[in-house]
Specification:
Strand content: 5-15%
CATH topology of the largest domain: Alpha-lytic protease prodomain-like
Shape: elongated
Largest sheet: 3 strands, mixed
Oligomer: single chain
Number of strands: 3
Order of helices and strands: HHHHHHHHHEEHE
Strand order of the largest sheet: 1-2-3
Number of helices: 10
Radius of gyration: 25 Å
Length: 289
């Protein structure tokens, strides 16, 4: 993530400088978007270090909740940036648009699109199962998509200017900002939804829920147990799994319960998450409510 951080610094500096000098709103928007991502990357580095520190006296269950909290903050910050940029674009359109240089936008768009896709691919390879890395990759992919859209806008502006439609071309820059905001909007919405779901201890993504059900089912069949009640929750890299089997109390011992629990934990290991499993064999159904 340090490489991502320094790449963001370089691109944001160039975008802000070029946007101010050329007066191009879409490049300024891109610089602001990357600048926000830069701050969030720095926060993510601190959160990743803290959440991986493990349990302590003050935090006996660890600080895994930092991960969804940071993802939520990232989503809110990006959403705020998009709303501000969209509002500014509406004002520019109301005031009659602004002149643009198709060449500047096209060259900038091509350069940052290539950088965005390359960095996203490299970062993903470093930690493919990390939620923080997933958020980072989402930001880079969104930035690359914006750059591709800039290239399309630059081509449209060049065609309009060549055709003598300079008055229409004045609206290309703010329209690009509005389109960019609409394209990227799904990213912060997804991040906000994911962060809130984990902080509120909601059910994990469907693929994890299915994997847990399959793992528990394999253990259930091996030990010839009745259908259990399964509860799952995910916070960062920590996966909580509670499995309750209602059985005749005289037929099972504590040692049997331990064997079932070890079986469940082993079956869940392929998920690559930090498994916190609680497995109970009880004869009292009220204890599972």
């Amino acid at each position: 993530m340090l490489s991502s951080l320094w790449t963001s610094v370089a691109i944001a500096a160039v975008a802000l400088l070029l946007g101010i000098v050329s007066g191009t709103r879409i490049i300024l928007f891109d610089g602001a978007y990357i600048g926000v991502g830069l701050i969030l990357t720095w926060i993510s580095l601190g959160a990743a270090s803290a959440s991986s520190a493990g349990p302590s006296t003050r935090f006996p269950f660890g600080r895994a909740a930092l991960t969804p909290l940071v993802v939520l903050l990232q989503g809110l910050a990006i959403a705020g940036t998009l709303l501000f940029a969209a509002a500014d674009a509406v004002v520019i359109i109301r005031d009659g648009g602004s002149p643009v240089s198709p060449m500047i936008i096209g060259i900038y768009g091509a350069s940052t699109a290539a950088a965005g896709f390359l960095v996203a691919r490299w970062v993903r390879r470093q930690a493919p199962s990390s939620d923080l890395v997933s958020a980072e990759v989402s930001q880079w992919r969104a930035g690359a998509a914006l750059s591709v859209m800039m290239m399309v806008g630059a081509a449209a502006a060049a065609i309009l200017q060549t055709a003598g439609l300079n008055l229409v071309a004045l609206y290309i820059d703010p329209i690009l900002v509005l389109v960019a905001s609409a394209i990227v909007a799904i990213i912060p919405l997804r991040m906000i939804t994911t962060g809130l779901n984990e902080l509120l201890e909601g059910a994990p993504p469907q693929e994890i829920t299915v994997a847990v059900a399959q793992a528990v089912e394999s253990v259930r069949r091996r030990f010839v147990l009745p259908l259990p009640l399964i509860r799952t929750g995910k916070v960062g890299r920590k996966l909580y799994v509670e499995v309750d089997f209602i059985v005749p109390g005289s037929d099972w011992s504590v040692g049997d319960e331990d064997s079932v629990r070890r079986g469940v934990i082993t079956a869940l290991e392929p998920l690559g998450l930090d498994i916190w499993a609680v497995v109970s064999l009880t004869a009292d159904p009220s204890l599972t409510e």
